[in-house]
UniProtKB/TrEMBL annotation:
It comes from Teichococcus rhizosphaerae. This is mannose-1-phosphate guanylyltransferase. Residues 11-293 form the Nucleotidyl transferase domain. Signal peptide: none annotated. One of its GO terms (biological process) is polysaccharide biosynthetic process. The lineage of its organism: Bacteria, Pseudomonadati, Pseudomonadota, Alphaproteobacteria, Acetobacterales. The keyword Cytoplasm does not apply. Belongs to the mannose-6-phosphate isomerase type 2 family. It comes from the Bacteria. Residues 307-354 form the MannoseP isomerase/GMP-like beta-helix domain. Its EC number is 2.7.7.13.
């Protein structure tokens, strides 16, 4: 985006979604914004990289506190400088998150222009996005709350729509919003497509902090009061801003569309052709993915025979597809999804069934990420389980003990320093150590390469909550 001489735009990334329609890849513990769906970069990294340059202030990210280290690590990998990461103690939809961003930006500059964007959308043409952003920023400085409307290419029922009104005088390429329309049925979506007056709602907004706060005060005063209390009671934790939990919990669970956009008289829209997709379903991901001559999009070790217009993705296991058309097949290490592409919106219903059945695969991956690295379960029996643990260079686990299990660690790559009660022991490859039930222990990686070890647990109870932490580098209880 060219530097216009105005104050820099504050990019705000809303990173609290779960991407439930992209199960089994996207799950609550590791949702879609952290996955590389279209390139080698995650969706969060791609989003952050669109807001780098002299026209932009430091990135502000509103994220779920459970994902704080994922967010920080991915931004570090993307070389995003000095990001501010604000942690939501509980999920409260987009309106409270946007209120927190507006309050924080307003503290630094009452006329800050915020570019609010979800962390998990695809935009193919960044230059066109920046051109549209310039128009939106001008309208925002004139007191408008601007959204971006995407020209429909199909009668999509998974998106909300915007009916564009009259062009706004003195603001080129900006129109008033006549009305917002919820996700329509197929017939209504077809009429919208044919009529030409309706645009897909991108979920991105541009407004000054002052305008947002004024409209929140007028239309959702209880919400703003709760979030203001959460910001005033916020604490610093490492590189994070933790909103006050009790105050934030009082904010209603509501989207910015319901809280403000559908009620305000300041809504405006910039029609934009930027190659946008919310990548909200497997069908949407197929649409924006590269395809072979038969219309198939694949990821991972996939072999196809007489398949057409399919999306097939595997996270490691060789996956063969024969004779299918318009199908989606997604394979992870603990779950498989197979369906017709036309049923992509129904994945959410399947996920509800899995949650009702208390299937852990509904929310958790086998690989679990922690600030020091990750672990994954390999084998689980009645009174034992085996895990593979990877610790990043320079990282360490908490000083801890367990009441119900003993552990045996075997180093298979790298070097470990292990504290066991009063001992401090260095382990190299193919060396091991036994940690009896109740001993106080810790492991760290002093080396320059990842530390990999196999952990064998044995005992009467093997749950992750059997842990007492005495000291933790990452501020966990």
């Amino acid at each position: 985006m060219a530097d216009t001489g105005q104050q820099r735009i504050v990019p705000v990334v809303l990173c609290g979604g779960t991407g439930s329609r992209l199960w089994p890849l996207s799950r609550e513990g590791f949702p879609k914004q952290f996955w590389p769906l279209l390139s080698q970069h995650s969706m969060l990294q791609e989003t952050a990289n669109r807001a780098v340059g002299p026209s932009f202030a430091s990135l502000l990210v509103i994220a779920n506190q459970d994902h704080r280290f994922l967010v920080a690590e991915q931004l570090r990998e993307a070389r995003i400088e000095n990001p501010r990461i604000v942690l939501e103690p509980t999920a409260r939809n987009s309106a409270p998150a946007i209120a927190a961003a507006a309050l924080l930006a307003h503290e630094e500059d009452t006329q800050s222009v915020l570019w609010l964007m979800p962390a998990d959308a695809a935009i193919a043409d960044t230059a066109a996005m920046h051109a549209a952003l310039g128009k939106a920023a001008e309208a925002a400085r004139a007191g408008r709350i601007v959204t971006f409307g995407m020209k429909p290419t199909a009668p999509e029922t998974g998106y909300g729509y915007i009916e564009a009104g009259e062009p706004l005088e003195g603001l080129e390429g900006v129109a008033a919003v006549a009305r917002f329309v919820e996700k329509p049925d197929a017939g209504t979506a077809a009429r919208f497509l044919a009529g030409g007056q309706h645009l897909w709602n991108s979920g991105m907004f541009v407004a000054t902090a002052a305008t947002l706060l004024a409209e929140l005060e007028r239309l959702a005063p209880d919400l703003l009061a709760a979030v203001r209390g959460a910001v005033e009671g916020a604490t610093r934790d490492l590189d994070f801003i933790r909103l006050d939990p009790a105050a934030f919990a009082r904010a209603p669970d509501i989207s910015i569309d319901y809280a403000v956009m559908e009620k305000t008289s300041h809504a405006a829209v910039v029609p934009a052709d930027i190659g946008w997709s919310d990548v909200g379903s497997w069908a949407a991901l197929w649409e924006v993915s590269s395809k072979d001559a038969a219309g198939n999009a694949t990821q991972g070790p996939v072999e196809l025979y007489q398949a057409r217009n399919c999306y097939v993705r595997t996270e490691g296991i060789l996956t063969g597809v024969v004779g299918l058309e318009d199908a989606v097949v997604v394979v992870t290490d603990d779950a498989v999804l197979a369906m017709h592409r036309d049923r992509a919106q129904d994945v959410k219903k399947l996920l509800e069934q899995l949650k009702a059945a208390n299937r852990k695969e509904a929310t958790e991956h086998r690989r679990m990420y922690r600030p020091w690295g990750h672990y994954e379960g390999l084998i689980k029996g009645d009174r034992f389980q085996v895990k593979k643990i990877s610790v990043k260079p320079g990282a360490k686990l908490s000083l801890q003990k367990h009441f119900h299990r003993a552990e045996h660690w075997v180093v298979v790559a790298g070097t470990a320093i292990v504290e066991r009660d009063a001992e401090r022991i260095m382990l190299r490859e193919n060396e091991s150590i036994y940690l009896p039930l109740g001993c106080v222990h810790r492991m760290e990686n002093p080396g320059m390469i990842p530390l990999t070890l196999i952990e064998v647990q044995s005992g009467s109870y093997l749950g992750e909550d059997d842990i007492v932490r005495f000291e933790d580098t990452y501020g966990r209880a």
